[in-house]
TrEMBL record:
SUPFAM superfamilies, per database record: Tetracyclin repressor-like, C-terminal domain (SSF48498)
InterPro entries: MT1864/Rv1816-like_C, Tet_transcr_reg_TetR-rel_C_sf
Keywords of the record: Transcription, Transcription regulation
Residues covered by the HTH-type transcriptional regulator MT1864/Rv1816-like C-terminal domain: 39-142
Name of the protein: TetR-like C-terminal domain-containing protein
Signal peptide bounds: none
Plastid as UniProt keyword: no
Entry annotated with the keyword Transcription regulation: yes
Gene3D superfamilies hit by this protein: Tetracycline Repressor, domain 2
Amino acid sequence: MFGNKAGLLSSLYEEAVRLFVARLAAIHPTDNPANDVIRLGLAYRDYAVANPYLYAVLFSDRTVRCRSESDRPREVVEAYRPLVDAVRRGQRAGQFSSASAPEVIALSVWGTAHGLVSLVLSGNEPSELAVADCYERTLRALVAGWREEGRVPAFVDVT
């Protein structure tokens, strides 16, 4: 049906991407782009928890699925686009600093969501703590941190 193991993995990857893109695309933009960023982060987590095996296929070693960069489905870029668009809208609305490119802010949100979700799904979540208890709050703190242009909190030593 799939030709070989590579064909099976490729089909699984394409399905994982399709469902992931659809889940993020279901988060319709509102007049509060900063909140939309949070909602996208929550949708990211919901997809991963509901589809842990497809999430693993989606974010596992790409060399297993794709021999070259050109083999990567364009849909992967589409999964990231709603987040970048929300940040860009937030910058225009004054909700995010314009000192950084929207892609940089979006990447920080994506990386934070990915890291927390990966801790849970890999079984590396600290036993005395629950990521679920701090996930949304962490996203909100990250979004708040990107609001102040050029301002670094006093407790951070950047030297």
